[in-house]
Write a structure and sequence with these properties.
Elements: H1 3-18, H2 21-37, H3 44-54, H4 68-83, H5 92-104, E1 111-118, E2 131-137, H6 140-153, E3 157-158, H7 163-170, H8 172-186, H9 201-211, E4 220-225, E5 236-237, E6 247-254, E7 259-266
Antiparallel strand pairs: 1-2, 2-7, 3-4, 4-5, 4-6, 6-7
Helix pairs in contact: 1-2
Length: 268
């Protein structure tokens, strides 16, 4: 089996687990040509004939080269299949950055100023206890445009983040319940409250705040959760939280500093 055929098989598994049936049909169609011709098949001059061939009986459905739909389709194909390791290799950082940019609509022109990830690479059981911090620098124009967009979206909330929301992000109640349950199941005495192995809720909250990048005093924030496999599974925008979460993506838009800070965190 050739390298392109192997990558094609891997891509099909990814496509069938991540995209809608209509998207799968088109991507499978492109993959067939990729396996035969190679990655050059995804070049712009090759995608146009493929689109014409695929949509020959549905002119209205076929994206026209140069249009916004065309650019969106090509943008969807190239990052999703090529840049993020489905068809060709890429680094974990590139994959992380692509996912984060796509989730929060961060412009392609925004510069990644900070990237910190622990663990940096997957282990036997994936990336357990994942922590990612990214900061993007925006031009003044991009910052103004993004600020107007998020303000009108209804899916971003004005800063500051309420304390109760931070407590749910930190998993304060879940951690306390887990300590009590473990002591009961093991028959051991629960350590004194405030000790290293049984911190108070206030101590845990302080630790959580210290582990997070500084929040801007004004701006906008958005929270997304998945419940599992946060970098790949579908995510839900959470405008409010009424219970602890075991993973989250938190984006903070600072219009004054023209930055977007994103924190990814999991408890699995």
């Amino acid at each position: 089996m050739s390298e392109d055929e192997t990558r094609g098989q891997q891509a099909r598994l990814y496509i069938h687990s991540r995209f809608s049936s209509k998207q799968q049909l088109f991507l499978d169609f492109v993959l067939q040509h990729y396996v035969s011709t190679g990655v050059q098949e995804l070049a712009q001059e090759k995608l146009a004939p493929l689109l014409r061939l695929r949509y020959q009986n549905s002119i209205a459905a076929r994206p026209q080269a140069g249009t916004a739909r065309w650019r969106a389709m090509r943008s969807f194909l190239l990052p999703g299949l090529v840049c993020c390791g489905v068809l060709t290799a890429c680094t974990t950082r590139e994959a992380d950055e692509w996912v984060i940019r796509r989730q929060f609509g961060i412009p392609a022109t925004a510069k990644a100023l900070v990237y910190e990830a622990t663990p940096a690479e997957p282990g036997w059981f994936g990336r357990e206890g994942l922590r990612i911090t990214m900061v993007f620098g925006l031009s003044e124009g991009d910052s103004d445009a993004l600020t107007r967009k998020v303000a009108a979206s209804g899916q971003w909330q004005p800063l500051p983040i309420p304390d109760t929301t931070l407590e749910h992000l930190a998993g304060i109640r879940s951690a306390r319940a887990a300590r009590i349950r473990l002591a009961q199941e093991s028959g051991e005495t629960l350590q004194p409250e405030g000790s290293v192995y049984n911190p108070t809720d206030g101590q845990r909250m302080t630790q959580f705040r210290q582990s997070m990048p500084a929040h801007p005093p004004t701006g906008w924030y958005q929270i997304r959760t998945a419940g599992t496999d946060i970098m790949h599974a579908p995510k839900t925008v959470r405008t409010t939280l009424n219970k602890d979460v075991n993973d989250f993506m938190l984006a903070l838009l600072d219009p004054k500093q023209h930055t977007v800070m994103v924190r990814v965190s999991t408890n699995y």
